[in-house]
Amino acid sequence: MSENPEDAADFAAVPDAFQRLWTPHRLVYIQQGQQPAENACPFCLAPSLSDEQSLIVKRGAHAFVLLNLFPYNSGHLLVCPYRHVDTYDKASSEEVAEIALLTQQAMTALQNSSGNQGFNIGMNQGEVAGAGIAAHLHQHVVPRWANDANFFPIIAQTKALPKLLGEVRNEIAAAWPSG
């Protein structure tokens, strides 16, 4: 190995504790982004459509729940305020409370409809944090099952989803807890 720390070729064969999975196809997404025009916000449009068209499973007074059109797993839900606000700190106390309640209810509905064993729940705030729609606040509720993660999405650029979105929407809406 050379003494020049800038000589990257010397590092190519040096073993270390890391395994690397290169995904250069993701660079386009990172560099160009996937943000819609301000007047084309899908979360502002969804409530004006029927629940079936917009994949909404539950409507509240200040927020609503819909299926993610590009889900990580079957049943991947998004909890959104009706108001077009971009970050959690700008949400009203009523919106925050209803987002929390709808998230709890979404967990129950998903467990009742799909028997999942866990959840990933979270918000990406801003483009740099990975928000697919950065201009409109939304919380992800992703059901998880043992052994549901694999390399298929990365290697084959494909995500296997066992049910159609409309079918999943109907099942979750039917399993939604009352109250």
Automatic annotation (TrEMBL):
| PROSITE patterns reported in the protein's UniProt record | HIT_2 (PS51084)
Q: Which residues form a coiled coil?
A: none
Q: Which residues form the HIT domain?
A: 42-151
Provide the leader sequence positions: none
Question: Mind telling me which InterPro entries this protein's record contains?
Answer: AP-4-A_phosphorylase, FHIT, HIT-like, HIT-like_sf
Keywords, A to Z? Nucleotide-binding
Name one molecular function that GO assigns to this entry: nucleotide binding
Per its UniProt record, what PANTHER family does this chain match?
A: AP-4-A PHOSPHORYLASE, HIT FAMILY HYDROLASE
List the protein's name. Unannotated protein
